[in-house]
Amino acid sequence: MEAVRKSDIVLANMEASNPGGYSLALEVGFANALGKRIFMVDQIEDPTVRRYFEMVRQCSERVFLKLGDALDHLLSLD
Q1: Which residue, among 7, 34, 11, 9, has the nearest Cα to 24 in the 3D structure?
Q2: CB-CB contact of 58 with 12 (8 Å)
Q3: Per-residue pLDDT averaged across 37-49, rounded?
Q4: CA separation (Å) from 21 to 2, 53, 59?
Q5: Which pLDDT value is given to residue 45?
Q6: Strand 9-14 relative to strand 37-42: parallel, antiparallel, unpaired?
Q7: Tens digits of residue pLDDT in 44-59
Q8: What is the DSSP string of 24-40?
Q9: What percent of the chain has pLDDT over 90?
Q10: pLDDT of amino acid 70
Q11: Which of 6, 23, 32, 42 sits between 20 and 30 A of 57, alpha carbons compared?
């Protein structure tokens, strides 16, 4: 959590292989409470699991489907 506290931007990468994403959701919520800029990579394909991450997506300034696209976007920021 200290890394989130020290950062200006948080990149949340929800990989399809992540079994639950509970830690990711906690970190995104913490970052949101601190007013951090949040970007998310959402690779969840299972619609049953996907619906539980809508709040995390809503906390994100932008959601990407691929990590490479998110990294390119971050590099383009001023």
Answers
A1: 11
A2: no
A3: 91
A4: 19, 9, 15
A5: 85
A6: parallel
A7: 888 888 888 899 999 9
A8: HHHHHHHHHHTT-EEEE
A9: 76
A10: 98
A11: 6
Q: Which of 29, 21, 23, 34 is nearest to 60 (CA)?
A: 29
Q: Which of 40, 66, 62, 65 is nearest to 53 (CA)?
A: 40
Q: Does position 26 have pLDDT exceeding 90, yes or no?
A: yes
Q: Show the tokens assigned to 78.
A: 């001023």
Contact (Cβ atoms closer than 8 angstroms) between residue 40 and residue 24: no
Kindly state the tokens that stand for 76. 């383009």
Closest CA to 12 of 37, 34, 54, 41: 41
- The C-alpha atoms of residue 7 and residue 50 are separated, in whole angstroms, by 27
Local structure of residue 18 (DSSP, 8 states): -
Q: Which two tokens stand for residue 55?
A: 């709040």
